[in-house]
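Why Rhomboid family intramembrane serine protease? Reviewers of the renewal asked for a concrete example.
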Amino acid sequence: MGNLEVITIALIAANVIVSYKGFNDFSFFEKYKFNVGAIRRGEQIRMFSSGFLHADTTHLFFNMFALYLFSDLVIFDIGKFYFFVVYIGSLIAGNLLSLYFHKNEYHYSAVGASGAVTGVLYSAILLRPERDYYFLFLPSRIGDVDLGIPGFVLGIAYLLYSIYGMKKRIGNIGHDAHFGGAIGGYFITLILMPSLLQSNPLMVGLLAIPIVVLFVLQKMGKI
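Here is what the prediction returned.
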C-alpha cells in the first residue's frame, strides 16, 4: 500500500474536488445530491454525481481513507480497469438499492462514496476471504493471540449489521447504500473473475448469505 495507483489518486482527487465544491456552493450540492423526488422526475445524473459529494470533511476523510486501504488489494488481483468498473458499478448499485427502499420517500436525500467504497471492500474480501484484517488504533495481537479478523467474517458481520441498521434506521447513515455497494462489488467481481466460483465456492456462498437474508426479510415485509 506504499505507492498509490494513478486510478486511486484520480478517484480520491475527484471526490475531494467535487466535495469541496459542494461545501462552498449550496446550489451545486442541492443540484447533484441523491434525492428520490428529483431522480423520479428524471434527474438520473444524481445517481452518479451524489457519489462524489460528501456531507463534511470528516465524512470525506473516512471514505477516502477506506478507499486508500483497500484499493490496492483489488487492483493487484483484477487490474486497474476492472477495479474502476467495481468502483463505479458499486456506486450505482448502492444508489439503486437506496432508491428501491426509499422510492416513496420523495424528500429522502443522501451523499457520499460509501457505496462505492463498500463495494471495493467487499470485492477485496471476496478475492481474499481468508486474509486477516485489523482495527485501527488497536493492537494486532495480545501476547500469543492474533487479533486479526478473517475477511469473510468481517464482510458477513458488516452486512448483517447494515441490515440491522436499515431496519432500525440507526444514525444518519445510508446503510442501504452501503449494502447495495457491497452487492455490486460482490456480483461485479464474480462476473469479472468467474474462476472464484470454482476455486473457492464455499467462501462465495458464505459471503452471499447476508444478501439472501436481506431480500428474504424484504419479501416478508420485515424491512
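The CA atoms of residues 29 and 200 lie 43 Å apart. This is the kind of structural detail the renewal will allow us to pursue systematically.
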